[in-house]
Amino acid sequence: MSLPLFQAILFYVFGGLALLGALVTVGQRNPTYSAFALIVTLVSLSAVFGLLGSPFIAALQVVVYAGAIMVLFLFVLMLLAVKREERIQGESRAFKLVAISIAAVLAAEVGYALTAAPRAMAGRFDASARQVAVLLFSPRYLYVFEATSILILAALVGAIALAKREPHP
Amino acid sequence: MSPQLLQHALLLSLALFVVGATGVFLRRNVITVFMCIELMLNAVNLAFIAFSRASGTLDGEVLVFFVLTVAAAEAAVGLAIIISIHRHKDTLDLDAFNIMKW
Amino acid sequence: MILSPLQQEIAISVVKVLILFNALLGLFSLMTYVERRLLAFMQFRLGPNRTGPFGILQPVADGIKLFFKEEVTPEGANRWLFVAAPAIAVVTAFLAVAVVPYGGTVTLPRFGWMPDWLEGRPVVLQISDLDVGVLFLFAVSSLGVYGIVTAGWAANNKYTLIGGLRSSAQMFSYELALGLSWVTLIMVAGSFRIRDIVDSQAGWLWHWNAIRQLPAFAIFLVAATAEVNRTPFDLPEAETELVAGFHTEYSSMRFALLQMAEYVNMITASAVGANLFFGGWHSGIPGLPSSPLWFIVKMFGFLFFFIWLRGTLPRFRYDQLMHFGWKVLVPLAMLWIFVAATLIVVRHS
């Protein structure tokens, strides 16, 4: 087994798992199952990131996305006790067809654009945490980084303010 | 590290994005639509990482870091909004929130 | 047979995984016995002493009993998730051991009958030495929340749902403090690899992070105990509260799996604590050679400490727990990071 074959197998396994999870997320009627399928997708994508040579972002993806954001989703789903989505009669069939055809056109266009020109791969690639940090704290991205912290503070305050129950008079 | 891998990664990203977009069009439950949006964000993250790998620079990684952060903030506020609209109408069906339609 | 270097690495890793997996299973059984005995002695009673000499076969008896118990699935329970929840809990518990090192590098001795590529080969006593080892631990403990929240929800029972949500909220609140306590260790060692953090504690006893970075160690102790759902933070699963918390509806093997997940989490937390704060396999004295035995001794010290806590302290009420996690521990951890960073900068300039 040579190295590229091993990588190819891993990529197909995790990529296939990610795509399968995505299809279940979109197709499943019960939102809780969709949430679990999305978690599977996120973790498989993290594996793909690792395959592409970015261990730091792979770990962060699991910690932030699969470990925090999806927990939040699951909490809301379980506390609101969401039911299965019911089929409605009438206009759904034509609407679905239009939606899927638009998606197919999008896929064809972007697919063509992505695969038309062969791309070269760079030789050296060091995406360790240290290198990413060096770039993150360089003057190019430092202000954006600080601005993101203010964004998170705003989101924190906003989420609390929005979800707070009005005190009953 | 072959160009094939980059090609396949970009195609996977496209597939995930298209699946997410279809979900946003078709689903009626607000939380499912939100999850499809997160799926699209992840597809874009994958594209960023793939291109970063191809070009050898790390700007893609840093941008993914920011997308991750912004997605977290957006999820928090979005779910808080969903909780409040559920409190208002006791349903999560998007078609029920149409009082601003002409 | 001729194996490519990649296949050789894979073969050695498979052997390491098998050894470590079985060692964990054995340690889990041992811990159930040791905990009951030690707790009993602390509570001035005897504990299990009938099955086998000194009750040493008690885990075997427990295993046989749990194996033959009837598997009850509550009516209206979500069948897939009900079955999947213990599996998720166990998988995430075992996954964390993949990055925990338990020794330096051993060179396989030359026996003469082993294949060429094994003779005299240096083997690292760790399944995978990830560049982002500490982040991997953080990621896997974040995933551990799902086992509990799924178990609580899938049983179609109001009380297990509340217990599961409480337990998972507790877990991810203290995870934050846990992660923050590791930041100063990473800053001092300059790397995310657990092996580098262990090696930064080589030398004398006072180089250990438990002494050099005492606030981080204190925060880690509290956060790890809460993370593993041990007393005094075990309100969500205590027998006298909320029936039995999130694992009320589980019986037989699924319950055994949930217990296994909890004990393996405890063992992993002890192993990580021994590595990150007590110098891992380094003996505290430069003259004495370092060996995995030191690591095992330190890990057992941590495990004894967890059992000791259980026998001594009363539980926290849930709101006290959340208040402590968010309003005391996280600000303290951030304050310590600030202080430590200042000290590092001052020392380097």
Write out key terms for the chains shown.
heterotrimer, A: 169 residues, mainly alpha, Four Helix Bundle (Hemerythrin (Met), subunit A), 6 helices, B: 102 residues, Helix Hairpins, 79% helix, 0% strand, elongated
The count of DSSP E runs of length 2 or more, i.e. the number of strands of chain C, is 2
Rg calculated over all Cα atoms of chain A? 21 Å
Q: What is the architecture of chain A at the second tier of CATH?
A: Up-down Bundle
Global Rg of chain C: 21 Å
CATH homology superfamily of chain A: NADH-ubiquinone/plastoquinone oxidoreductase chain 6, subunit NuoJ
Instruction: Provide the CATH top-level class of chain A.
Output: Mainly Alpha
Secondary-structure-based class of chain A equals mainly alpha
How much helical structure, as a percent, in the residues of chain C? Answer: 55-70%
Q: Classify the secondary structure makeup of chain C into a structural class.
A: mainly alpha
- In whole angstroms, the N-to-C terminal distance of chain A is 72 Å
What count of structural domains of chain C?
1
β-sheet strand percentage of chain C: under 5%
Number of strands of chain A: 0
End-to-end CA span of chain C: 56 Å
Mean pLDDT of chain C: 88
Form type of chain C:
globular
Question: How many domains would you count in the coordinates of chain A?
Answer: 1
